[in-house]
Amino acid sequence: MDERVPLLLRDNNSLQQKKNTHKSEYTKAKISLFVMINYFAVEFAGLTQPQYIYSYLENERESNNTSVDIQNNISSNHLKNCFNKSSYSTDESRERASSWTWYISLAEYGVAFPVLFYIGPLTDRIGRKPLLLYNTVMVFISFILKTIVVYGRFPLQYYVAASAVEGLAGTPFAFNLINHAIIADTTTLGNDRSLMMTIYDALLGLGAICSNIATGYLIQLLGFTYPYLVSSGMLFILPILIFFTLEETWKPPKDKSKTSVFKLPIKNFTLCFKRQHVSNKLGYFIANLFILLLVIFPYTSISSILTLFLLGEPFCWTSEHIGWYNAGVDFVKYLGGTTILKIMHSCCVCLKDEIIIVFAMLSSIAYLILLGFSNNDWMVYGGKSEYFFGKFMHLHS
Fold this sequence. Notes:
One of its GO terms (cellular component) is membrane. With 397 residues, the protein is mostly helical.
């Protein structure tokens, strides 16, 4: 303690430091709540989407078959009807549903790709809170449109258009990007930040697990519209909570850059290749980005395809069965994998990250291969157990 500093000034500085610490803790608690609400809502409708598309196309193909009623899910006679259908008709419905799922993903992520290039730099230009509000409001609008489409049984082209609106929000990737920036603002580099990232990942998984279980039962009991209504309601509450409770954690610099907003992504990209910024680690950074792309691509696309796969023969799973299965997958992915990763880091100090990533890659490959050749429920469950270590790869990337 410096005796030359007045005691009153030291007390004021200490008090201000405590206030800032409490503010950071409150902010982290709010972010934890926001991520649970957001992922509960997004996953609630996300699990419903492929089942709705499959049922819509089945209803369209068999308009005179009363056993398929789009308002009452894939009806209570789904198991019997599924096994009675010809293999050709089942494959045809799944093939068409898979195509529509691809169109929806293309509309959503195709629009989101350029948006994400701007959201990153803009978080430093205008702050975190305005962009978080923009993201949540646009996602809410998208889900309202999807709810209307599902309730009115409008053609699937309208659903694709509603998904493009979600792309304008930057999708959940933008939501995570902004939240990670807030976490970086309110934590210190090291264990504090790593712990918060782990908690964030675990709560994200908790929201997904709860929504998967609830969605299966809600679809079976009340139909497809209600999951979208629940998601829209929660996404309506989320921006209100953010607006009234979240304080801005980033103060934009007073001497703002004169670079046009439209040129920001290009400037940030070329900055990495300027001589004064290039280091011998740039090659590793680019290689890691490429690896991240290879990791995200299969895991982003497999969810809807797997649901369609399980709806038809030889599985003929109901919405509740799919909900419980996805909840188990998310538990393994977000909670189980994270826990084992922390244990291995603590107990196996000599075990390098590279070795863990190799095990994770092999586990992921085994999971996808086993699913591809699955012809009974136990092979699907076995694939889930192989996925346990696959989460490591995602975490380390």
